[in-house]
Write a structure and sequence with these properties.
The chain is an all-alpha fold and 100 residues long. Helix content is 56%, strand content 0%. It starts with 23 loop residues before the first helix and ends with a helix.
């Protein structure tokens, strides 16, 4: 395990808030916004028509991982952010992989 978890002191418990979780529709909306920001920032016009498909796939992956009954059940939008970054990194490699 990478992190050591230390319980909160009892004096801090009144300050803890449970904000719940996002609905699937809201999470998919945020995923779509993350994708749009990265594609616009990196000028990937070719990928712009794929945004809805990518958002649907990542939303389904988030839902699937959330259903897992082990440590994999913890998902966040940071996972989506990292996935989009890796996807675009591979996309940038495509021109370098074309051999004439």
């Amino acid at each position: 395990m990478v992190y050591r978890v230390i319980p909160l002191p009892r004096s801090l418990l009144p300050l803890v808030w449970d904000f719940g979780e996002l609905s699937s529709e809201t999470e998919k909306w945020y995923i779509l916004k993350i994708i749009h920001v990265h594609i616009r920032t990196d000028c990937y016009n070719v990928l712009s028509h794929c945004c809805d498909v990518i958002a649907t796939v990542l939303s389904n992956v988030q839902n699937y991982m959330r259903e897992m009954r082990d440590e994999c059940s913890f998902v966040s939008l940071r996972d989506v952010e990292r996935t989009v970054q890796v996807m675009l990194w591979f996309y940038k490699l495509i021109p370098k992989l074309h051999l004439d």
